[in-house]
Amino acid sequence: MATFPFQTTDFPIFLAPMEAVTDAAFRRLCKSFGADVLISEFISSDALVRDIVDSQRKMLFEEDERPFGIQIFGHNEESLRGAAEIAEACRPDFIDINWGCPVKKIVTKGAGSGILRDIPKMIELTTAVVKSVKVPVTVKTRLGWDESSKPIVEVAEMLQDIGIQMLTIHGRTRSQMYSGTADWTLIGKIKENPRMRIPIVGNGDINSGEKAKAYRERYGVDGVMIGRAAIGNPFIFTEIKQYLAGEEIPTFSYEKRVEICLKHLRDAVMVKGERTAVLEMRRHYAAYFRGVPNFKEKKVKLMLAQTLAECEAVFSNCQTA
User: Fold this and answer.
1) Nearest-angstrom CA–CA distance, 151 and 186
2) 101 has catalytic annotation
3) Most buried among 5, 184, 246, 307, using CB within 10 Å?
4) Is pLDDT at 95 greater than 60 in this prediction?
5) Which structural domains are found in the chain, ordered by start?
6) Cα separation of 45 and 278, whole Å?
7) Do 46 and 79 contact (CB within 8 A), yes or no?
8) Predicted confidence band at 317 (pLDDT cuts at 50, 70, 90)?
């Protein structure tokens, strides 16, 4: 297996960077359930160099979150280099460049997966970042732009040759967005390339310990990254770890889920303030309580709640000691 540019386990499980999801509260919760490597929410390089407070806040992390990466995105060499230097000053274990975000407002500017239509520029901009900092630089990207353009096998080698120290690949094209099934075949081909020395992390559709094990064995990846499957489900890291270890997969009672959900919410309030935290938690509730009978009424109340106290009141009769 390839060597990671930071200390971690033999087969690390990463928490994917997700906007308005992987704030400090959620990251630390996932860490407590077994996530090995954490990454910030993705941060605009333009905003960082303009000293936007919210972007600066996204870089903050605690020592117990290590190994920790700061992810930046952009389309301009000057701002990407400047953002990398600002991020480096926060002493992360690595800086990750996002060349994979499929969101239209990012792509139309040539950032995120928009760069997949201009591979020479991707290499040029990534080279500039690698040369501007001493901390390890990594990349997260996709297979390509669409079904007719999936150059990731060649791109992986090019990125390695300019000095990146880890590559994470989401097994979809930009045109797929998050639809359909992730195709890991090309990720496997990259691992089969005898020239590849850097760690390859697979991303896309890993939602169970069984799948993590199967994909590790089938495609030979050095680690896996969990994204949407972790939303409202920090327990997935424990489930994967114990499955890989051949141990019994734990179950989490409704009461335990209430306890963890409320901790998540209260910690998020401390990090982001009450209004933002209450609004952003709404995307987590369905997953926290998936399969719980008769939860619909509580979910409706949670989606309408405007304050922490209102959310706590919904669970007032089922909190654990």
Assistant:
1) 9
2) yes
3) 184
4) yes
5) 13-244 (3.20.20.70), 254-314 (1.10.1200)
6) 27
7) yes
8) low
